[in-house]
Amino acid sequence: MLYGKEHVQRYQETDGAEGHEWNNTVTLLLTTKGRKSGKSYTTPLIYQRFGDDYLVVASKGGDPDHPGWYKNLVVNPDVEVQVKGDRFKARARTAGEAEKPEMWRVMTATWPAYDEYQKKTQRPIPVVVLERAE
Prior knowledge:
Elements: H1 4-14, E1 21-22, E2 25-33, E3 40-46, E4 48-50, E5 53-57, H2 68-75, E6 78-83, E7 86-94, H3 100-110, H4 113-120, E8 127-132
Antiparallel strand pairs: 1-2, 2-3, 2-6, 4-5, 5-8, 6-7, 7-8
Protein name: Nitroreductase family deazaflavin-dependent oxidoreductase
Pfam families: F420H2_quin_red
InterPro entries: F420H2_quin_Rdtase, Split_barrel_FMN-bd
């Protein structure tokens, strides 16, 4: 099973033929700009479609702190996304309180462990909406 940098590399090299399907779910690649370094960082994340948008969850396995990629997109919401061979620019935003429950259900249907992660931490785990910019 692919993880981390190897996951990103194989996904990019094969247009997602390797890496899109992962552990009985699907992943996309999210590229953010580092809030301190200004460097690009690419992270494989579980996703689901929500209308025309894509959803990802900033869970970090229930860690007390948000993942770095989430902190980056809060500062700079202009991101790049790759879903299989489709690469596009997107605008990232955190789901609002009114819309989050439905989006959370969509994401826990594909990765039930998100509910366990939420129980492990005091912070509300964000659902991130990726809206295609092109």
